[in-house]
Structure formats: C-alpha cells, structure tokens
Amino acid sequence: MVDRLPALAAALWWGSLTTIGFLVVPMLFANLPSTTMAGYMAAKLFAAQTWVTVACCLVLLLLSKARHATVQHAWAQAAMVFILGGLLLALLTQFGVAPRIVARQDLRLWHSVGTVMYAVQWCCALAVLLRTLQPAAAPVDGAAR
User: Fold this and answer.
1) Could you give the number of structural domains in the chain?
2) Is position 27 within any domain?
3) Tens of pLDDT, residues 47-79
4) d(C-alpha 42, C-alpha 56), whole Å
C-alpha cells in the first residue's frame, strides 16, 4: 500500500486541479447572480487548492526517497522537476498573482497570467501522475540469459 501513496497523492493533486479549475469555477460564473460573487468564491476555492497542492507535493517529496536509502525511486527521478515546478507555480499564483486580481490591478493581464500558471501547474501534476503510475523497471541481471 505504501508504494501506491505517490500515485494517490499525484491523483489527488491532478484531480483537484481539474475539478476546481475546469468544473467548479466555470459553474460558479455560470450560475451565481453576479460575477463579483463568483469571483469571491473562486478566489476562496483557488486558495484552498493551493494548500491541497502544497500538501500533495510535500507528500510526494517525502516519499521520493526509498526507505532507509539515499537513492530516489525511479518515478521521483523523472518527476522531481514537475513536483517542484507545480509547487512553485501554486505558491506564486497564490501570493503573487491572486492579490493583484483581488485588487483588480490590471485585471485582464493578471487573470491571463494566473490562468496560464494554473494550466502549466495542471500539466505538471499530470506529468507527475503519469510517472507515478509507470511500473518500476525490473532489475537487470546480466547473469541470467
């Protein structure tokens, strides 16, 4: 079961990004009476999503090392840049872009920047998920033929 935790953390990260960004927030804007109310709720959901991302990425980073070893798992070697990139994007969006959107400072620019950063973070989460689902390579035994 422990060997499946990286895949579960990556699935939670990618699935929550997908659900919030591509389903829930568009439904808010389509169904709430004002865009102001929808924007307020979207900001709260994106803030919560940031903390889901942080938690999932920390779990992935902690699980990336083999138990009682100094080597990384094969999935972690392939996914480390995507884990760190996604984590950085989430934090930059939350603490750099979101305050500018809330303050309505050059709204079109900052909304576009935030959207691109969210999409790239989604791609990072997908890359991590796919790498955690890849089967571990079988050990090569030169003596067996």
Assistant:
1) 1
2) yes
3) 999 999 999 999 999 888 765 566 667 777 878
4) 21
